[in-house]
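ugh ok fine here u go
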Amino acid sequence: MSLIHETDYGTPRSKAEKLVTITVDGRAVTVPEGTSLMRAAMDAGIGVPKLCATDSLEAFGSCRLCVVEVEGMRGTPASCTTLAAEGMKVSTQTDRLKRIRKGVMELYISDHPLDCLTCAANGDCELQTQAGAVGLRDVRYGYEGENHLGQAKDVSNPYFQFDASKCIVCSRCVRACEEVQGTFALTISGRGFDSKVSAGLGSDDFFSSECVSCGACVQACPTATLEEKSVVEIGLPEHSVVTTCAYCGVGCSFKAEMRGEELIRMVPYKDGKANRGHSCVKGRFALGYATHKERILKPMIRDHYLQPWQEVSWDEAIGFAARKLREIQAKYGRGSIGGISSSRCTNEEVYLVQKMVRAGFGNNNIDTCARVCHSPTGYGLSTTYGTSAGTQDFDSVEEADVILVIGANPTDGHPVFASRMKKRLREGARLIVIDPRRIDLVRTPHVEADYHLPLRPGTNVAMLTAIAHVVVTEGLMDEAFVRERCDWAEFQDWATFVSDESRSPEAVESVTGVPTADVRAAARLYATGGNGAIYYGLGVTEHSQGSTSVMAIANLAMATGNVGRRGVGVNPLRGQNNVQGSCDMGSFPHELPGYRHISRDEVRETFESLWGVKLDNEPGLRIPNMFDAAVEGTFKGLYVQGEDILQSDPDTKHVSAGLAALECLIVQDLFLNETANYATVFLPGSTFLEKDGTFTNAERRINRVRRVMSPKNGYADWEVTQLLARALGMDMNYGHPSEIMAEVAATTPSFAGVSYQLLEEKGSVQWPCNEQHPEGTPIMHIGEFMRGKGKFVITEYVATDERTGPRFPLLLTTGRILSQYNVGAQTRRTANILWHEEDLLEIHPHDAEMRGIRERDWVKLDSRAGSTSLRAKITDRVSPGVVYTTFHHPMTQANVITTDFSDWATNCPEYKVTAVQISPSNGPTEWQEDYRELSEDSRHIAPALDAAE
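structure:
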């Protein structure tokens, strides 16, 4: 194996359709109009020396190293900024050019440390290679004059350092921060000789600045000025493997650069179709959890969760788990056990879990974390459009004219896609944000929302219906699209419904709290502004009317004709790396892979003939039903693959009661997470770096996950599940995940064309991928909806039962922060903890003053479900009457507060609306202290001698 080197063409590819032909050093080359001479030369196989140019950034023309000669043109123009024109004759190597380049390079080197042999970038430095390329052999200028060699390093960032003495002021880092990331944290301060890269204000270092540690600047730097600390400490990598990030639903492709079995760094892969060479702080740097000291590598068992753990062999642990499950079924019945699959594991691993439950357990008690996040997306989009997924690829945003973001915070939850969205907004697209909180997108450098509609939590349906009211009553719908593509009779019923005056912006202003004029203006903009794209998140789905909200969004897109082409669509921003895939693979209790209902005889027969067992035709238990049944005493055994349900699911006290009532809880994970407090079997899991497989991201893109190191626990997760299935008597003998995907393709129409061979050839594909779509489907519903005619659904607003009142006058809503991921099990075990050491409660200044609360005070948060305490952050990001917190730290116990209310169709919890009261506090509550004690006690591992006895 060797390092994967991607060609740098110097400037971005031109998207023009017209072609021009030029001659470069006697070679004819045809390129799209608008292509730079530098890139045209590379297309002809001729490299032009460069330092300030790279193909991820727009041409800049500052280094003067890339000069060329053009017949008929005066001087020596920069090849990066000069565009190819028909018939041009270009020379890249003449005596004159050689002298100029050598002189320019000599000036750079004269103010640069000559410590190449000990430099961390030795062998990976463009300044070094370009000095060789131009033939520089000596430097006539000494170091006696003024220079920059004595400048101090900035090592404040935990992941990379900034060595100003090695900076050549090429501006690539500054431009990457602006053009690629869109944060504008870096600048060139000073002029002339005093010019230097600065992070934020003069007093800022990288850590204290607005830098979000995405790594774009490090990636762009041509010298060792910006360098990963891992490279400085360990050395340069010697081979690399392309794989897929295991954090959010964007699904970024990375080159895992290795030295032996040690990960040196993750470098975003330019050919990754989801991220296009960009990254965020989590995927780029937050990998320390894979080797963290708290990671459990040996299987453990115990008879009761109050006992210490005992380390045992894999055979003992698997045998113990299988025996317990069979004993429970013999005592309580076939339906007394179940499983929960992981949205962090691969498609192949998730497929095996649902197969084990259905064919091995003999029931359909299988569910996944999508139950508590995007299950309403599946229900709503399947009902209206005929498929349970988003309509577009991420590239589509580049052609959007109006972007409507509702209930999502892309810059924190999906930062790489957010950077692409911000770039489109800087280019002129218009923006509407519907969110109770003023998210960063509302106002960020060079981006400002045209309309921010800060609605009251829980009123999404009323808001969306009011927008539809404006569209219909003002005649802004696309009637031709609706007549051709949708059920006209259903549309008429819906149009009559939304046109009722009781659903006008004026009528619902008292419900949503948003001024009528803003709602009407936003509706007109979305309907008439060109290509309208809707992006939504958990702020839509995690409500008692989550499914209704998704259908209301689908209605709005159909009514305005914003479906079935580039730049438009309905796009759920899914939270976890494979939450789409876990749903695709049949992890719901009522659906087999491909979203086909378990009650359909012909669907069951497909799997029965392959698996050799009879399948139950009745849907199994959903996750909330499992907890209820456990408390009732009818559900006694649970296998949990890679999910921390105790921290992530609502109404923690009810969840803990359910887990405590189990006779056997099997947890398969990297760490002793909160759920493992009640486990009797712990099976060590593997990281994404230690396995082969596939993830499916939020745009339905199936990406390869490739093993880059051996599993530190001994097995990949799919192998662990297979061991348990065999112990239960199943004939499960896969040799590689590709064999599992072959079975998926053989049984699931939307995956019929998917194979590892195809993924190797294409890099990735988007389902459906089958005979009709052999290379996948980037844009859904072109010409016709998957269900035939689009279905308009009446979306009556029904207020949640979770109401404010004298006892609980405020509304709590929850979300994520950039540096942390989900329950924080991975990111809390990395240096990302430096940016978010604890969960804070955001409270409006008015509400804080009314309660005598100051910044960083401990406050007690009470709801009808429970109480917890955390520190206050006073901010006007939230409106009066609304408070907000994250849930990344287990000791915060945020879900002690959330209630058991859920979506009417899918049981997705109503995380986003909880009536609360806030009062000053002296610190953690009694519940938090008791929980901390239980958590510490439950993690005790008996010494090896005790275990043997």
